[in-house]
Specification:
three-stranded mixed β-sheet; 12 strands; single chain; alpha/beta; 12 helices; 37% helix; Rossmann fold
């Protein structure tokens, strides 16, 4: 068990809720920070959790809320990622030992460094760099987890099940890592029990490796006899086109298209190599092909 046991958790989305459950199972003492009314939020929390209302734009408010905590875990939404700079400053000021940013990316920790230059990753990379510049003042752990398995099967990412349509990037042949949300939560808590081994570095985990073609083949199997609309996309060409459009008009609405072209291109480290994985360190297993198919079918109930 870690000697650092007082945790402040920021963010109450699906990942934050599952991380909270894992922290409680591991017997950490947890304070949940929230911007919302504490009375209504408290009713949704497990018994014994401390709740503090905080102003994320106020250094004084953050310092008061974080005082006495060893670890800060952020699961804030992508839109709130820039707010973490002030939270890091407050954490340093009150002596927090380790900060885990809301990153949990698929390719924004690409070992080659190429993906970090993409505009869609700018906010997350800025926080990564901010932490690295302060690693003598506060430790950090950054998580690379691949695409979330739940999103791959339920959102129009790899395939659009709801409309029986697919945009195949380069024929859908490039491999990518995926993790369940529960695996991400277990990895976060596992890293807190391996403090020295996970200090000031990227922790890389996944449940399985898929291709877009594999997901598409499963979707067609589950919708046997139905007509699908296929569109072939040159990933590199799509990425270049989107980059050019962003240079002319920095419209955030273009960023998802940029990410998909990069993610499915096979050029930005989307498939994690076995030798780089930290699954064994954190006591995490892998999913078999059969388990991935079963989970995918369960997730898509109502869509197939």
């Amino acid at each position: 068990m870690s000697t650092l046991q007082k945790v402040a958790l920021l963010g109450r989305g699906s990942l934050g809720s599952i991380v909270l459950d894992e922290l409680l199972r591991a017997r950490f003492t947890v304070t949940v920070l929230t911007r919302s009314d504490s009375t209504s939020t408290a009713a949704t929390l497990p018994v014994g959790i401390t709740l503090k209302q905080v102003d994320y734009s106020s250094l004084e408010s953050l310092q008061s809320a974080l005082q006495g905590h060893d670890i800060v875990i952020s699961t804030l939404t992508p839109a709130a990622i820039p707010l973490q700079k002030l939270i890091i400053d407050a954490s340093i000021a009150v002596g927090v030992t380790r900060f885990i940013p809301a990153d949990y990316g698929a390719i924004c920790s690409d070992p080659s460094g190429a993906a970090q230059k993409l505009p869609c990753h700018a906010p997350a990379v800025a926080i990564q760099n901010y932490l690295r510049e302060r690693d003598t003042q506060i430790e950090h752990t950054i998580f690379a987890v691949g695409a979330l398995l739940e999103r791959i099967f339920t959102l129009p990412v790899a395939v659009d099940l709801a409309h029986r349509a697919v945009r195949l990037y380069d024929g859908g042949v490039h491999a990518f890592s995926v993790s369940r949300t529960s695996t991400v939560a277990k990895a976060v808590v596992g890293a807190l029990q391996k403090l020295e081994e996970t200090r000031n570095r990227v922790v890389r985990v996944h449940d399985a490796v898929l291709t877009q073609r594999r997901v598409y083949n499963l979707a067609r199997k589950w919708t046997a006899g139905e007509q699908w609309t296929e569109t072939n996309v040159d990933a590199e060409e799509q990425l270049a086109r989107t980059m050019a459009m962003l240079q002319k008009n920095p419209d955030p609405a273009l960023l998802p298209a940029m990410f998909l072209a990069a993610f499915f291109s096979g050029k930005f480290g989307a498939e994690y190599r076995d030798q780089d994985l930290d699954n064994e360190l954190l006591g995490l297993g892998l999913l078999s092909d059969e388990e991935v198919e079963r989970l995918g079918l369960e997730l898509t109930t109502g869509l197939v």
